[in-house]
Amino acid sequence: MRGLMWVVLSVCFGSGVAWAENPKTIEVWRNLFTLSHGEGVNSNSTFLITKEGVVVVDTRVNPAEARKVKEAIRRQTELPILYAINTHYHGDHTFGNQVFRDSHNIVAHENVRKALEFEAGKEHLEVFKSLKIPGMEETVVTPPNILFRDKMDIYAGEYHLELIHVKGHTDGDLFIYIEALKTLITGDLIQNKRIPYMGDAYIEEWIKSINYMGDLDAEIYIPGHGDPGGKPVLIAMKHYLIELRRMVENQIKKGSSLKETQDAVRPKLKAKYSNWDKLEWLDGNIERAYREFSLK
Ligand SMILES: [Zn+2]
User: Fold this and answer.
1) Which H/E stretch holds residue 177?
2) Cα-atom radius of gyration of the chain, to the nearest Å?
3) 3-class secondary-structure state, position 1
4) Distance, CA 173 to ligand 1 centroid (Å)?
5) How far does residue 189's CA lie from ligand 1's centre (Å)?
6) Distances (CA, A) of 45 to 198, 212, 223, 225
7) Angle at which helices 203-215 and 231-254 cross, to 10°
8) pLDDT for the residue 296
9) What residues does 148 pair with on adjacent strands?
10) E strand or H helix at 2, and its extent?
11) For the residues 115-143, what does the mean pLDDT come to?
């Protein structure tokens, strides 16, 4: 199923996508950096420099892109890389893992490993190869080797990172809370000005997860895609999900078919979120919501 869902993506990335553009490195706080806004599959990668070494969160879409992360780290420090953490299994966050294999500490929720090992991982890589992203051929699927279920604490140098599992964007999401920095690294649970991919999402759980994240004492939210920002970034994502749920549920109550629901809801969301990226994913989002809320 996962493979099928991702096929939808291939329609969205044409061969005309420019790949030459390099991501910019944003210094979010002292010692905390995010690589953001590379062209194409522009997933963020974040790194924290501690006294003992570096913690990397998400490894981008392939080894070439992951090496850009490593180069950005090396421009700041020669300290060793202690951990690479995957916020979820999607290839644009995990297919650079092999570049960080030397740390021997690739950490994720246990469902991330399930989605990346054996045939499932190979299928997921095939989907990304079909997107014609330069450098995919070099990719060797490298699942995480340190797994947890609900929560994991990592003490690295002077920092305490809380890795907390929630469900929403996938069934294996985690976000990282660094209380001392009042910072959340959210993975794709939060994306800044971008319609999220929902091929394997759980929308009701997702809203609950964002509420939980919003209750934590934080000022900075580093999303899976787009610029880091303050609480408005979290609120905008939550509102999008609530709007999607409300509009689709209204149609279900009226007895509308999926197509009728898409035709009614798509223009409203398109108008409201006209400045967001990936509007072409709205129909997929509406379909996912329709299937989830029809079951209620
Ligand atoms: Zn994702």
Assistant:
1) strand 173-178
2) 18
3) coil
4) 9
5) 8
6) 20, 23, 10, 9
7) 150
8) 75
9) 109
10) helix 2-12
11) 96
Dihedral sign computed on CA atoms, order 164, 167, 168, 173: positive
Residue 197 CA, ligand 1 centroid: distance in Å: 7
pLDDT tens-digit readout, 220-274: 999 999 999 999 999 999 999 999 999 999 999 999 999 999 999 999 999 999 9
Which domains are assigned to the chain?
2-232 (3.60.15.10)
Q: CB count, 10 Å around CB of 66?
A: 25
How is residue 282 written in tokens? Answer: 């709205």
Residues in Cβ contact with 230 at an 8 Å cutoff, skipping those fewer than 6 apart: 219, 220, 221
pLDDT of residue 22: 79
Q: In 3-state terms, what secondary structure has residue 231?
A: helix
Residue in this structure with the two tokens 């329709």, named with its chain if needed: 290
How far apart are the CA of 188 and the centre of ligand 1, in A? 5
Q: How far apart are CA 50 and CA 133, in angstroms?
A: 33
Tell me the C-alpha distance between 148 and 257, whole Å.
40
Contact indicator for 70, 60 with CB cutoff of 8 Å: no
The pair phi, psi for residue 26, each rounded to 5°, is: -105, 130
Using the mean position of ligand 1's atoms as its centre, give its distance from the Cα of residue 255 in Å: 31
Ligand 1 centroid–CA 224 distance in Å is 7
> For residue 197, what are its two tokens?
């991919």
Percent of the chain with pLDDT over 70: 93
* CA of residue 49 to ligand 1 center, whole Å: 25
Using the mean position of ligand 1's atoms as its centre, give its distance from the Cα of residue 160 in Å: 25
Structure tokens of 53? 């070494």
What region, left, alpha or beta, does residue 37 occupy, with left being phi > 0 and alpha being psi -120 to 50 degrees?
left
pTM of this prediction exceeds 0.85? yes
